[in-house]
Design goal:
single chain; alpha/beta; Rossmann fold; Dihydrodipicolinate Reductase, domain 2; 2 domains; 6-stranded parallel beta sheet; 6 helices
């Protein structure tokens, strides 16, 4: 697998490069601000952890090369989302703000909760480091979208504290019961591992817009 990393100088971009090296995958391009993506050849898949607000060139590159695009950024503008959905007509596109196995397992759990905990009050609490730009996090928004069809009053509480790597709690309150699902990250490495695993899988899928694979 030949990987093109966007946001390569960021903490997650560097983690992805390490995982590729350990796993024997080729990193054929490391793109950051002001780099020319069109000079990169022979990529099989794009892995994007950048925080840019204009992915026009990146989307056009994927369209031109007809390769899969995996975006794991929690900062995606409305115009970029529109571009991604347009790209999905000709290439497989994954938009996933959290690549960890644990969060994706929790999303499956929430389907069961929606069936069995109707009427509960729900709070999503998310904790991240002080430098994180967005609040609520992209993961918290994804969780909330899973909950809202059933739990109309579900809300998110965001905290930015210390060097917290990422904790998400979903709390369900019934009259005399509380159910809590917690996911806590000890290392950013889990996101890089998850991203590479998803990149491998999406290359086998047909063109389309995916949020979970």
């Amino acid at each position: 697998m030949r990987v093109l990393i966007i946001g390569a100088l960021g903490k997650m971009g560097q983690e992805v490069a390490k995982i590729c090296e350990e796993s024997g995958y080729d990193v054929v391009g490391k793109i950051d601000k002001n780099d020319d993506i069109f000079q990169i050849e022979n990529a099989d898949v794009i892995v994007d952890f950048s925080t840019c607000d204009d992915r026009t060139d990146y989307v056009e590159y994927a369209r031109k090369k007809k390769i899969a695009y995996c975006c794991f950024s929690t900062l995606v503008s409305a115009s970029d989302l529109k571009r991604m959905k347009g790209l999905a007509k000709v290439c497989p596109v994954l938009m996933c703000p959290n690549a960890s196995r644990g969060i994706n397992a929790i999303l499956d759990m929430l389907k069961v909760c929606a069936q069995q905990l109707v009427g509960a009050d729900v709070v999503v609490c998310e904790y991240h480091h002080k430098q994180k730009k967005d609040a609520p996090s992209g993961t918290a928004k994804t969780i909330l979208n899973f909950l809202l069809p059933t739990f109309n009053d579900a809300k998110v509480v965001s905290c930015r504290v210390g060097n917290e790597r990422g904790t998400h709690k979903i709390e369900f309150y019934l009259d005399d019961e509380k159910i809590e699902i917690t996911h806590q990250v000890a290392s950013r490495r889990v996101f890089a591992i998850g991203a590479i695993e998803m990149a491998k899988r999406i290359m086998l899928l047909p063109a389309g817009f995916y949020t979970k694979i």
